[in-house]
Amino acid sequence: MPPSAPFNPPAADLPNKPFVPEWVPPPVTQQKENFAELKSIDLSLLDSEDPVVVEELIQKVKVAIRDDGFLFLENYGISLEQLHRQFALAQYLYHNISEEEKERLLYSPETGVWSGYKHPYGFKRHRGVPDGIEQFNWYKPDWEDRNRTPTCLQPFMDEIEEFCNYLTKSVNRRLLTLFSRVLELPDDYLWDNVQSHGSPTGEGYFRHALFRPVEKSTQEASKGLRMHGHTDFGLTTQLFSVPISSLQIWGRDEQWYYVPYKPGALVINIGDTLEIVSGGHFKATRHRVFKPPVDQLQSERLSLVLFNSSVGDLPMSPATDSPLIQREGYIEEQGIFKEYRKQMSSGRPVPTNRQWREIQISTATDPTDTISNRVGAHQVVIDGQVMHQREYLGMKVVLPV
Ligand SMILES: O=C(O)CCC(=O)C(=O)O
Ligand SMILES: [Fe+2]
């Protein structure tokens, strides 16, 4: 395989582009917290001429997705400086978007997509309890029609679009090559058959998120949660490691761990679709967003995320051609794959990838929702532990709070 070309973005200093102040990473926490020890994958090794190096890489990926369902990716082709420019653009958005545009571009999650602007008052179109989270999400129609993106970002959409193209068409494609090889399938199996195409983010979406500090009343109502424990519903999620510690993952020892800051690294989440495609060999990453350590409580947290979605019309199903699955069978000890199997054996229809993502977006609840977040409503006690339990299209999703 030829070495992959590094990211080569459009120029930032064109005459039509206003000055964008630099993004300065805030200081990391000095608190002693539980941090996850995650395996880091050097993606450039995939281009190695030495088959032994490549084989070791595949084995490392195999272990990481089995043990943590989560990995750091380094040397994937985007420099720290190029990445900081993208954070600067996100920062610029939240400093310059007007109130009129927040209203005009307001999202409608009840339609099953997050497209547009999310106000900092919960995950519904109408304003609820303040949650301090603002987002802007680009889906296919938002890439195609500049009127659907904030005016202040329009001069920079060439850079943002190329960044997303690189993340999906280069980084995610190489990542899916690694995953295809773990499944012992042809290199482009997941890219050709499962990944959606047709815009910089396919049927998925790119997000600029800003988490602002919250009032005491919000923190009390949500018990410090900023986003519920969840798994992403798609194929893979590409997040960037950020200095404000808030993202947590659920360890095999059933405890939450903060994801440490590794400058420039990409954090990869495995989504529900990929758990099902892999017959349960890959575990969807259980994660949440929690309040940061005390010395970062008053800091703003920017997060850039690209959600890769699978082809919407396909029913969720395992890649039965995989020699790994044929040899070792399914792994259904827990999680969405187990639910999928139950759904199949009961004869009920399994959701398509699109139905699966849209039902979760349209019915999302807030961590501040003290009516839903109670045992007897959306919570259950299992083996003495409070879990969040929802049912979507007949499939039960049980996750740590
Ligand atoms: O901002 C983050 O670090 C994670 C956000 C997240 O998990 C999500 O939006 O699905
Ligand atoms: Fe997530």
From TrEMBL:
<dbReference type="GO" id="GO:0016491">
    <property type="term" value="F:oxidoreductase activity"/>
</dbReference>
<dbReference type="InterPro" id="IPR026992">
    <property type="entry name" value="DIOX_N"/>
</dbReference>
<dbReference type="Pfam" id="PF14226">
    <property type="entry name" value="DIOX_N"/>
</dbReference>
<keyword id="KW-0560">Oxidoreductase</keyword>
<dbReference type="InterPro" id="IPR044861">
    <property type="entry name" value="IPNS-like_FE2OG_OXY"/>
</dbReference>
<dbReference type="GO" id="GO:0046872">
    <property type="term" value="F:metal ion binding"/>
</dbReference>
<dbReference type="InterPro" id="IPR050295">
    <property type="entry name" value="Plant_2OG-oxidoreductases"/>
</dbReference>
<keyword id="KW-0479">Metal-binding</keyword>
<comment type="similarity">
    <text>Belongs to the iron/ascorbate-dependent oxidoreductase family.</text>
</comment>
<protein>
    <recommendedName>
        <fullName>Fe2OG dioxygenase domain-containing protein</fullName>
    </recommendedName>
</protein>
<keyword id="KW-0408">Iron</keyword>
<dbReference type="InterPro" id="IPR005123">
    <property type="entry name" value="Oxoglu/Fe-dep_dioxygenase_dom"/>
</dbReference>
<dbReference type="InterPro" id="IPR027443">
    <property type="entry name" value="IPNS-like_sf"/>
</dbReference>
<dbReference type="GO" id="GO:0044283">
    <property type="term" value="P:small molecule biosynthetic process"/>
</dbReference>
<dbReference type="Pfam" id="PF03171">
    <property type="entry name" value="2OG-FeII_Oxy"/>
</dbReference>
<feature type="domain" description="Fe2OG dioxygenase">
    <location>
        <begin position="205"/>
        <end position="310"/>
    </location>
</feature>
